[in-house]
Structures are given as structure tokens and as C-alpha cells.
Amino acid sequence: MALVHHALENPIRRRMIIMMVEGCRSVEGIAEAVGPKMLDYHLHRLELAGLIEVTDGAITLTEAGEAYGALIKSQAERGGAG
């Protein structure tokens, strides 16, 4: 739980998860949207938290990633932390 909290307390990683929930599932696509700065670090934090898996440049949301991603997207749409 602590790893998930740490991963999702960062606004860039929350934005990345929202993008993944909305269908952007390539490392290249995420990099274009959020920039390449520290991209590997952010992906690694999400992977360590068990929210995503990255294989050959493709990102797969885990079951937990889908659930947390939907929650974060909902919060952002209501004007919360996004």
C-alpha cells in the first residue's frame, strides 16, 4: 500500500495513469505527453507499486492499475487531485 501511495502522490504519475486508463499504452505516447524527463523513473515507480507492467515499449495496466486509475480519473474530473 505504501508503494501505491508513493507512486500516486506525484502529479506526473497520476497524469500518466489517467492517460493509460484513457487508452495511451505506449512508452512513446506517454513520453510525448508528459515529456522524457525522468520518464523511466516514473514508469519504474508505477511498476514497483504493481500498477503497470512495461514490455517492449508497451504498457499494460494491472488490475490494481485499472482500479486506481479509474479512481484518479474520477477525482480529476470532479476537480480533485489530477
UniProtKB/TrEMBL annotation:
Signal peptide: none annotated. This is Transcriptional regulator, ArsR family. It comes from Methanothrix harundinacea. The lineage of its organism: Archaea, Methanobacteriati, Methanobacteriota, Stenosarchaea group, Methanomicrobia.
